[in-house]
């Protein structure tokens, strides 16, 4: 696995997405070595049925929400068998199906669906004080062993350039000073790089368009809240990072990162 392409996509319900053939388009056009899916909304009992519908990936791993049906959930689909796959091993997060960690020979891959604070910001304390704090510990623990690639829907607008217009949205989930400040703290304490922003420092690119605004995409009113982050040791090995805004099927679009010479 010297060269590797990783794609990550918040599918907003995997069963629904598969009916639209949208995942097939991503796989056919990108052929990612590893495909990370967020907000799968699967139940554990449905996993075997889904597994058969994506035959391109011989190794498929799912973390489903046990807290609520049709909620959250992540998956890692890979062509190469990992050394191991585990959850975050923190029960309060794992019961919502938030994280999977796959170990490969030269890196760890962590796929997450970060909790949304909600329309009324009711989960702000959980998100900032518990989730964000715990994920920093998790990331740094794995980075002590190998470089880490961390991807998923992070539910945060990092900088002003990551949204079409931040004005008037500071009280919206993903845009609050608390969430943005906490994400900056995560980047600082883990020393990880935002792969897209590292390669494209001045480019505006959106991974999410709100369904509440039916003309959002037409008007270019998007947000970038999906990320692939990487340990600084991988900085020189990063060759590409981009968003596939042409692939529809969810309110999010797939993001891709490519690394070379990982051995």
TrEMBL record:
The GO cellular component terms are:
nucleus
**Which molecular function term from Gene Ontology is one that the record holds?**
DNA-(apurinic or apyrimidinic site) endonuclease activity
* Keywords, ordered alphabetically: DNA damage, DNA repair, Hydrolase, Magnesium, Manganese, Metal-binding
Q: Which residues bind Mg(2+)?
A: 10, 39, 153, 155, 251-252
What residues make up the catalytic site? 113, 153 (proton donor/acceptor), 252 (proton acceptor)
CDD domains referenced in this protein's UniProt entry, alphabetically: Ape1-like_AP-endo
The protein's required cofactor(s) are namely:
Mg(2+); Mn(2+)
Pfam name, any one: Exo_endo_phos
Q: Where is this site: Interaction with DNA substrate?
A: 252
Where is each Endonuclease/exonuclease/phosphatase domain found?
A: 7-252
Q: What is this protein called?
A: Endonuclease/exonuclease/phosphatase domain-containing protein
Q: What organism does the UniProt record list as the source?
A: Stentor coeruleus
